[in-house]
Amino acid sequence: MIAEDSVLLRAGVQRLLADEGIETVAAVEDGDSLLDAIAEHRPDLAVVDVRMPPTFTDEGLRASIEARKRIPNFPVLVLSQYVEERYAVELLAGGASGVGYLLKERVADVAEFVDAVRRVAAGGTSIDHEVISQLMARSRRNPVDALTQREREVLALMAQGMANTAIAKSLVVSDGAVEKHVGNIFAKLGLEPSSSEHRRVRAVLAFLNLG
């Protein structure tokens, strides 16, 4: 489902997703309608604009947080012109599984957006690097101080939902080098293998100083 106050943007995103074989079960324009529609339709994902009526500040983000309280790990992909730090932290602190936060002006192409939609709906993450940078800047303490610059770059790309092969391509290094960096990241963050939690998600939370 889509929550966006602009009629043109709602229609545009709905058409874009339809072209990729993704059905929109509801399209609403405010936070209250978002929560009602989620309860009624139980969609696989909500694509939510941050600023909606009545105040056009953070209604969408607050509604997303409430939706995930009512339905734990309900997949939400937030689209915003800005990083709303307070509620972004609260959204991510609730668990990074099935969470996306993209800045509208930094979505490079349709394929990238659709990939984020599918990834978040499947329980993955897609967090814009600029969002990560701003949240890191506000943190009082940084649990990733032990990481090298390259390991930070790898972890930032992990936070965007990239697999090792895609990270290797982005950084122009071998798959083996990325695997080594990922192993070092897990070791330095003290993330032992777990059957109940995905270490990549836990590493992202640690990177954002939330887990």
From TrEMBL:
The cross-references to Pfam families, in alphabetical order and at most eight, read: GerE, Response_reg
4-aspartylphosphate, modified sites: D49
Q: Give the matching SMART domains.
A: HTH_LUXR (SM00421), REC (SM00448)
Q: What positions does the domain HTH luxR-type occupy?
A: 140-211
Boundaries of each Response regulatory domain copy? Answer: 1-119
Q: Which Gene3D superfamilies match?
A: 3.40.50.2300
Does this entry carry the keyword Transmembrane helix?
no
**Which keywords appear in this protein's UniProt record, sorted alphabetically?**
DNA-binding, Phosphoprotein, Transcription, Transcription regulation
Q: From the UniProt record, give one GO term of the biological process aspect.
A: phosphorelay signal transduction system
Q: Does the keyword Disulfide bond apply?
A: no
Q: Which InterPro entries match?
A: CheY-like_superfamily (IPR011006), NreC/VraR/RcsB-like_REC (IPR058245), Sig_transdc_resp-reg_C-effctor (IPR016032), Sig_transdc_resp-reg_receiver (IPR001789), Tscrpt_reg_LuxR_C (IPR000792), WalR-like (IPR039420)
Q: Name one GO molecular function term.
A: DNA binding
Name recorded for this polypeptide = Response regulator transcription factor
Q: Per the UniProt entry, what species is this protein from, by scientific name?
A: Solihabitans fulvus
